[in-house]
Amino acid sequence: MGTRKSKAPPPAQARASMKKDLPEQFRDYRHVWVFMELERGHVHPVSFELLGEGRRLADQLGVQLAGIILGPPGDSTLHAAAEAFAYGADLVYLVEEPLLTDYRNEPFANALTDLVITHKPEILLLGATTLGRDLAGSVATTLLTGLTADCTGLDVDEDGSLAATRPTFGGSLLCTIYTLNCRPQMATVRPRVMRMPQRSNKPIGRVIRHDWRMLEEDIVTKVVGFLSDDRSGNANLAYADVVVAGGLGLSNAENLLLIKDLALTIGGDYGCSRPLVQKGWMPADRQIGQTGKTIRPKLYIAAGISGAVQHRVGVEGADLIVAINTDPHAPIFDFAHVGVVTDAVSFLPALTEAFTRRLAPANRLRLVN
Amino acid sequence: MHIVVCIKQVPDSAQIRVHPVTNTIMRQGVPTIINPYDLFALEQALQVRDHHGGEVTVLTMGPPMAEESLRKALTYGADRAILLTDRHFAGSDTLATSFALSQAIAKIGNSFGSPDIVFTGKQTIDGDTAQVGPGIAKRLDLVQLTYVAKVTSIDLRTRAITVERRSEGGTHVLKSELPCLITMLEGSNAIRRGSLDDALRAARSEIVKWNAVEAGIEDITKCGLRGSPTVVKRVFAPTPREQKAVQIDTVEKAVQDVANELVTSIFAHQPALEHELSSTRSVSR
Ligand SMILES: Cc1cc2nc3c(=O)[nH]c(=O)nc-3n(C[C@H](O)[C@H](O)[C@H](O)COP(=O)(O)OP(=O)(O)OC[C@H]3O[C@@H](n4cnc5c(N)ncnc54)[C@H](O)[C@@H]3O)c2cc1C
User: Fold this and answer.
1) CA-to-CA distance for B142 and B112, rounded, in angstroms?
2) Could you give the CA distance from residue A111 to residue A212 in angstroms, rounded to a whole number?
3) Do A179 and B230 make contact, defined as CB atoms within 8 angstroms?
């Protein structure tokens, strides 16, 4: 039997009731892969977060970690390869092709599927971005393998299976999902759910170029334009160090100025709970939570937000959660670190002022320097 | 022009409660709704039909009670509704679901004309995976356009379609061809109410019901639990944090004092942050 060399055979009682012997054709699937998402030449930070997770899984399994890079020939792909190594990859599989410049499903799904069939990874991780979800669904269907979406925890079981944990029923419960008899085991993870790993200055590792061709004429979809969000300046909420958010407790759209004011004063970004988007008080890309953005700031201030599970799953990774709410029994106090039971509308201006005063001396010092 | 819209009946997850002891979902009394994103897909489909002519068929896979959702879709103005229902589908994951739905869509094509567009919502609110749309596209070998905010134009003569697709940090304008599969984003279109005629027609309409065989599915092992490569091993409640929030006392204190105290508390928890904030602050101003 082709058991893995790097691991002792699983203990006899290990979920024998569930796991059949892995079908013969999958027994030589090995190594952990992370798809490196390139956005107009830049690596999406979620790829680094995934390399951090992938490193941990690969170490547990005693296998190698590979970064997968699909892109046009040139500096951006080589830079991505160097970054993959800096964040822990042992090797990089590289497909360089001009028609992989802008993301389109057909060539990317085709190239990634081809790579998997040739090099046989046992685990394949992608970011749960619009790109990653679009791509992962196609690849998993073509390979007829399991795909677990939006995981919040990844682990390796005692018999080497990937245990992928994700929220279900709108975040009220968590479930752990296995792909037992197919390979690769695929999962997507949202940006900011996993911690950003330390970047090291590891020297260049092994780059394996994969030969793949497709003809532009065979690709139906063409990219004819791109409108960047940069104009609205809100591309960065997920990666902001400080986030101030408002909820229905603020009563009206005008009071959102109090949130923006505080955010601006402390150099942070601002967001909101879902009802505010539904009321049209804020654009959808400012929504924080299960169906909005996941954030992982050093400081999160929630004003007039009750803390429903769907909101909670988006903010739990914050280092410090501060809640301002009139209701001492609001669920947000179950997961906030610091709470103030008070009216946010009158409190926010005072808080902004308190920050201004506290941070002012440092500011003056900088000006003198 | 023939359009198929896949919808799903889901529990209104805002009203779901978890049993505190058994950690199971308490479904009793939880109302079901059409997955909200699917309504945007339906609305976009109806607009395309109203503009270019043709028919809209709504399709759902689910238990017999999912018929309600289809009837609702008819009141919005869909022309035909098909319920794919069979005990063999129970326990389907996204791969098995996309198989069953794609077979049914192929059968719809044979019976009522091949679809030019298949619409789905961007994701469901109970599963949240966003995988079924791409799965159907792959199995039917359709071009897939996901996270579409808007169908900008369709040229039936050249079979060309232009859409705006949300992507990280912006919106891509994509030009593609029919037939294709589109998954729709939220908020793209206000959902119509449906006319009185539609409501009357919906009440009278027969909803077509297909079991696996009737939908043309030969290999039943590709459906349900057996056709699902993923296995749910464990379901559990998130662990509550054992430490309660530190409460800043507000009784008989001036609001400014409370604010100062909160700031002090924040920096006591996060000493490094004070220095960072002082510097980012001067940059952002
Ligand atoms: C499928 C699905 C997905 C969802 N996704 C998300 C999501 O991504 N993000 C999200 O946020 N929600 C999401 N929700 C909605 C979520 O369930 C809650 O309805 C929502 O988070 C509540 O928003 P809120 O806290 O602003 O409003 P409310 O629940 O109405 O809470 C308002 C709070 O403000 C307090 N308050 C009132 N007046 C004041 C005052 N003057 N000063 C201070 N506090 C005051 C109240 O005590 C209360 O706690 C989703 C729901 C569903 C069904």
Assistant:
1) 18
2) 7
3) yes
Same domain as A57, residue A33: yes
Instruction: Tell me if B109 is assigned to some domain.
Output: yes
pLDDT truncated to tens, each residue of chain B (285 aa)? 999 999 999 988 666 677 767 666 676 778 899 999 999 999 999 999 999 999 999 999 999 999 999 999 999 999 999 999 999 999 999 999 999 999 999 999 999 999 999 999 999 888 888 999 999 999 999 999 999 999 999 999 999 999 999 988 789 999 999 999 999 997 667 788 889 999 999 999 999 999 999 999 999 999 999 999 999 998 888 777 778 889 999 999 999 999 999 999 999 999 999 988 887 654 443
- Shortest Cα distance from A203 to chain B (angstroms)? 30
Radius of gyration of chain A (CA): 23
CB atoms within 10 A of CB B11: 17
Atom of ligand 1 nearest to the CA of B13: 53
What's the pLDDT tens digit per position in A350-362? Answer: 999 999 999 876 5
Over residues A291-303, the pLDDT tens digits come to 889 999 999 999 9
Q: How far is B203 from chain A (nearest CA, A)?
A: 31
> How many domains is chain B built from?
2
- Residue A321: beta bridge partners? A300
Instruction: With H, G, I as helix, E, B as strand and everything else as coil, classify residue A69.
Output: strand
> What is the C-alpha separation between B143 and A110, in angstroms, rounded?
13
Domain residues for the domain of A269 are: 231-357
What does the alpha-carbon distance between residue A241 and residue A267 come to, in Å, rounded to a whole number? Answer: 9
The sign of the torsion formed by the CA atoms of A86, A87, A91, A95 equals negative
Q: Which domain holds residue B193?
A: 2-227
Structure tokens at A218: 């065979």
Question: Is residue B235 domain-resident?
Answer: no
Asked whether residue A99 falls in the same domain as residue A173, the answer is: yes
* B263 Cα to chain A: minimum distance (Å): 7
B229 near A CB under 8 A = yes
- Within 8 A of A299 by CB-CB distance, chain B residues are 266, 270, 273
ipTM: 0.91
Residue A46 lies in a domain: yes
Q: Which residue has the tokens 């669904």?
A: A137
Q: Determine the Cα angle at A298 with ends A334 and A173, to 5°.
A: 40
Residue A99 backbone dihedrals phi, psi, to 5 degrees: -80, 5
Q: Is A220's Cβ below 8 Å from some Cβ in B?
A: yes
For residue B174, which residues of chain A lie inside 8 Å, CB to CB? 104, 221-224
CB contact under 8 A, B241 and A181: no
Supply the pTM of this predicted model. 0.89
Taking an 8 Å cut-off on Cβ atoms, the answer to whether A147 and B131 are in contact is yes
pLDDT averaged over chain B? 91
Interface probe for A, chosen from B95, B143, B163 (most Cβ of A below 10 Å), is B95
SS3 of B188-210 = CCCCCCCCHHHHHHHHHCCCEEE
Q: Which atom of ligand 1 is nearest to the CA of A272?
A: 11
- By CA distance, what is B237's nearest residue in A? A173
The two tokens of residue B3 are: 């359009």
Instruction: Name the domain boundary from A216, A242, A264.
Output: A216
Q: Do residues B114 and B190 both lie within one domain?
A: yes
